[in-house]
Write a structure and sequence with these properties.
The protein has 18 helices and 18 strands. The chain is α/β, with parallel strands linked by helices and about 475 residues long. A 5-stranded parallel sheet has the order 2-1-3-4-5, sandwiched between helices. It has a 5-stranded parallel sheet with strand order 9-12-15-8-16. Helix 3 links the parallel strand 3 and strand 4. Helix 13 packs across helix 15, helix 16 packs across helix 17 and helix 17 packs across helix 18. It is elongated.
Length: about 475
């Protein structure tokens, strides 16, 4: 059975437009006509089209190659009405001209034309080329649908992953999403901790109630108490009205406390009381208010180390750490890179009005990178490539130069020593070695050494003291 579709015919000659319209309608196609390139672009914004059949030379300032370029770069696309979700695949473009040259044919194919035909032509020839273009389009749509189906098997809410570490995360979320207990999500920056928190919320019994997120490191300490617990009118300068705190705004739902390790010790005490008593006291109020909120916290810090050095309260840590979900860095789940890259490619290309693919070489380049910035870095790399590349295929040169891989962690010997090991000494020696090397590379500047090690200056000072290093006479300045 011959494939039929929606065809836009663009030609400045009325007789040619009418001839093609009659012939294509007889073949079962739905036909739209445009006299100029600019009219064609206007029609493409309001009409869903599968194939564009356009003359190459037209008197308008937009010729056939201009129409082709606008379609393939996303400069023009169908503007869907409310509730519609059109295909993200751009129309196939077939160029027709009486002035064929090798150079124009090459330019057209390079810019993404499906085919290039020369006048005079037989209508059977046009029908055959359009039929093949429609078949190609149907095949691409089927492949995308299959890819979505496969991706769906490795998806939970907005989380993606087929690797064993991510499947373990999915399994834990499946067990605890409706529990009332607090959850602590740990992992490096950029791994998607907020996505895990949202998955716990949307998959659980509180899904219809609010999900309120707050970055504990982004709000000044002087305002944090008011943000969390609210305040009464006149409680302080500028408090011109009563204000609900985030605990109250999240009533019945989930309160996500990101970067929980940034909270001051004073606020940690008040947060602990709110968790224990399920009550909050707005600033300036005399009475406490009951709250029904599930708290999910996240951090990229080693909170146990923070507890050990007195920077984080042990009782709050144990109250938050009832269930811990560790989110693996992307370098520990490399088999998820293609899945994530394809997801970001489709999502971001649609936002830019583009239809692009990743070459095999570009994918290999992504898979070889350690991604110190994790999933967030991968998303940024894909968006940058889409924005800067004019081609329909993103190659390795379109991706930014990746940084050298970080040194691999020391591995345990294949044979465990019969006499056993002193694990604390081994860990201490390994840590001492890297701290020493970082100090040497930074010329003894502790802040620079901390940055090289990927830790905070506060954590660096703790390690120097723990490992017995000479802290030196000069200070590196205020902690940051």
């Amino acid at each position: 059975m011959r494939a039929v579709g929606k065809i836009l015919v663009v030609d400045d000659e009325q007789s040619m437009r009418e001839f093609l319209a009659i012939a294509l309608k007889r073949a079962g196609h739905e036909v739209t006509l445009a006299q100029t390139g600019r009219e064609a672009l206007d029609k493409l914004r309001t009409t869903l089209v599968d194939v564009v059949l356009t003359d190459l030379r037209m008197p308008d300032d937009v010729d056939g190659l201009g129409v082709l370029k606008a379609i393939k770069t996303g400069a023009v696309r169908y503007e869907a009405s409310a509730g519609q979700t059109p295909s993200i695949i751009s129309p196939e473009v077939i160029l027709v001209t009486a002035f064929a040259t090798k150079e124009t044919a090459l330019a057209a194919m390079k810019q993404g034309a499906y085919d290039y035909l020369t006048k005079p032509f037989q209508i059977d020839e046009i029908n055959a080329v359009i039929g093949r273009a429609l078949e190609k389009r149907a095949l691409v749509e089927a492949n995308l649908a299959l890819r979505d189906q496969v991706a769906g098997r490795f998806r939970l809410a907005n989380l993606l992953g087929k690797s064993k570490p991510m499947q373990k995360v999915f399994e834990v979320i499946g067990k605890i999403h409706s529990a009332k207990t607090s959850v602590l999500i740990t992992g490096e920056s950029g791994t998607g901790k907020e996505l895990v928190a949202r998955a716990l919320h949307t998959e659980g019994a509180r899904a219809k109630a609010p999900f309120i997120a707050v970055n504990c490191g982004a709000i000044p300490e002087a305002l944090m108490e008011s943000e969390l617990f609210g305040h009464k009118k006149g409680a302080f300068t500028g408090a011109v009205a009563d204000k609900l705190g985030m605990f109250q705004e999240a009533s019945g739902g989930t309160l996500f406390l990101d970067e929980i390790g940034e909270l001051s010790l004073g606020l940690q005490v008040k947060l602990l009381r709110a968790l224990q008593e399920r009550k909050v006291k707005p600033v300036g109020a005399t009475d406490e208010l009951e709250v029904d909120v599930r708290v999910v916290a996240a951090t990229n810090r080693d909170l146990e180390a923070e507890v050990a050095r007195g920077a984080f309260r042990a009782d709050l840590f144990y109250r938050l750490n009832v269930i811990q979900v560790w989110l693996p860095p992307l370098r520990h789940r490399r088999e998820d890179i293609p899945l994530l890259a394809e997801h970001f490619l489709r999502q971001l290309a649609a936002e830019h009005g583009r239809t692009v693919t990743l070459s095999a070489a570009a994918m290999r380049k992504l898979e070889s990178h350690d991604f110190p910035g994790n999933v967030r870095e991968l998303e940024n790399m894909i968006e940058r490539a889409i924005a800067l590349s004019s081609s329909a295929v993103i190659g390795p040169d379109d991706l930014p130069e990746v940084r050298a891989s970080r040194p691999a962690a020391a591995e345990a010997p294949a044979e465990f020593p019969a006499e056993g090991v002193d694990l604390d000494r081994l860990v201490s020696d390994f840590e001492r070695s890297w701290v020493q090397r970082a100090l040497e590379k930074s010329g003894g500047v502790r802040k620079k050494a901390a940055a090289l090690l990927g830790i905070s200056f506060r954590s660096m000072r703790y390690r120097l003291e723990k490992l017995g290093f000479d802290k030196g006479d000069a200070d590196d300045g205020p902690e940051s």
